Structure prediction request, 725 residues.
Amino acid sequence: MKHTDEYRDGRLARAVAVRITREADPAAEYHFMEFCGGHTHAISRYGIADLLPGNVRMIHGPGCPVCVLPVGRIDAAIHLAERPEVTLCTYGDLMRVPGSHGTSLLKAKAAGADIRMVYSTLDALRIAEAEADRQVVFFAIGFETTAPPTALAVKLAAAKKLANFTIYCNHVLTPPAIRNILESPDVRELGRVRIDGFIGPAHVSTVIGSQPYAFFAEEFEKPVVIAGFEPLDVMQAILMLVRQVNDGRCQVENQYARAVKPQGNEKAKAEVAEIFELRKSFEWRGLGHVPYSGLRLKEAYAAFDAERRFPIAAIEAHDNPACECGAILRGIKKPTGCKLFGTACTPETPMGSCMVSAEGACAAHWSYGRFRDREAL
Amino acid sequence: MTIKAYKRRLDIKDGCVDLSHGSGGRAMSQLISGLFYEALDNKWLRRGNDQSAFEVSGGRLVMTTDGYVVSPLFFPGGNIGSLAVHGTINDVAMAGARPLFLSAGFILEEGFALADLKRIADSMGDASRAAGVPVITGDTKVVERGKADGVFITTTGVGVVPDGLDLSAEKARPEDSVILSGTIGDHGVAVMSKRQNLAFETHILSDSAPLHGLVAVMVESGGQALRVMRDPTRGGLAATLNELAQQSNVGFRIAEEAVPVKPEVAAACDLLGLDPLYVANEGKLVAIVAPEAAKKVLAAMRAHPLGRDAAIIGKVIADDHNFVQMATSFGGGRIVDWLSGEQLPRIC
Prediction:
């Protein structure tokens, strides 16, 4: 397949692997965090760990939109969907995310709530147009990549004066989350997480560009290499990070230059800026409340905000106390460091969100990599 | 025909299924004789009994049943009617058996266009005649609008197993070869491409096909060296290998590079975020074969039109964890796990 096979070429991968092994100082340790779930998935799906020397370790970051959604927001979405007038439209991977008390959208749907899986915001808009008697709520989640299509849907709904379309906005931003990790005591003071560099987001960066990461390279002195989601992209980015560490450089480098420009996608950014504003704070599963890390609709578009149209109580819900998703999302623990992993918590019976999405660290390790733990099993 | 057709003809062009078509009255009789009998015509149906009697020779019979709820009903390369014939023939054939007869049960939704029902019944008739496996008895029920989705079909098949053959899922042994009969993912992607909310341009056709001819040549060349056969339908190749690993208490080691996938299917899967290993097939089989016979069986398969792309994709290994391991073409290793959740609902 043209334009993807080139980036999955095993021969080239082995050549890059040889260089990584040759250039990585055997006396040093290299711990790199891939922020994005897309990278986590590629690393697991293609078995990249097998190609890296033992002293180059990847730490899975919190860049999985499903994984970082707090239980309370899932509960609120379920409550919304249970309203008789509401049709809740959602991306499929949210369906199985556990809320509190063993609930999920999938179970709410089975119990009679009108919940429909859609593939795009425009599908939800079409449903609203076709079914004027239903209050159609789009469960908007994701990072900077999915915010522009949500913005577009809201603008279209406004232009069409749709009175039965709203969004339940859970869009979050990447840079504040990276900052939160770097400023956390685990990284700064306690030394529980060692991060020598970041693989920067692929799709997110196509929107926001490479500029927003300059801050991390300068202020926190961490190298950042923006990389595509194909396995060879990841391998090349790892080699570039090893070289930066060896040279003592802390720069933002762009491995994904075929798609990411320094300034990003101006049009998409303008669409988002027109519709959304920053929330003072937003709760992330694993990271807690992170200032200015989430988006909400501006006052001018308040009519399309489900949180203003419907009474949605802020629900303080907590994860299962044994669930280590929080520590795993911050890179403190590996999936296998959680007592629930593979026992009570599997993709069929997820206790925590990291086991739900294919981009979650736990699901990725369970589905692709657990044969490596065979001795421990 | 011993049953006289109801005088007023069915309005197949513009008519719809209504509740009277399932009521046991004249309208039902008219639907059965005017539509189903015509499409599926054979000497057993023509006798018009509630059952059909047939001769049985000695030996072992196999029997299987399968429900079909595919959405949409018509997809590139087939429809629910041909699928309901092929799918059940294949389940019979996976025992190494020669399929003999089918039955068909229809659940029709009130309001369903008779023209569409006729297309479905006709393609069922065509598929069963082409396969040489007649539908010899059936049933029709009608439910109120909204209680079904157009048509649901259940088919049951019986077949006869050649002497000395006993294929079964617990018979895979370490070192056995794993043979796949052709490209994976075609059916699932073809169906997916016609989903209302997901229409994308593709020329991919479902691989829906009856596999008993291919199985016959495999039985002839491999005989008792054939341990297990299974058609990787829902859940795809991944589900089939995981099932067999558990049932035989073994593991598998397969090579991604050896698994044939059409470039268009790979591209569509990439676009939709699917893994072809989990996408349904309706005209493919996986065979576990004793290593010494693998090459011979493979050659016989490749000489058959439905096995042209057949390949040895890996082997059985001893593994108490029953992992299906795969060497990725990228150079790493991974598990091919069970599918969790619904990747593609209502694919067959």
Summary: The CA atoms of residues 93 and 212 of chain B lie 5 Å apart. The interface with chain A takes residues 197-198, 257, 263, 266-267, 270, 321, 323, 325, 327-335, 337, 340-342 of chain B (CB under 8 Å). The longest helix of chain B spans residues 114-131. The two ends of chain B are 33 Å apart (CA to CA).
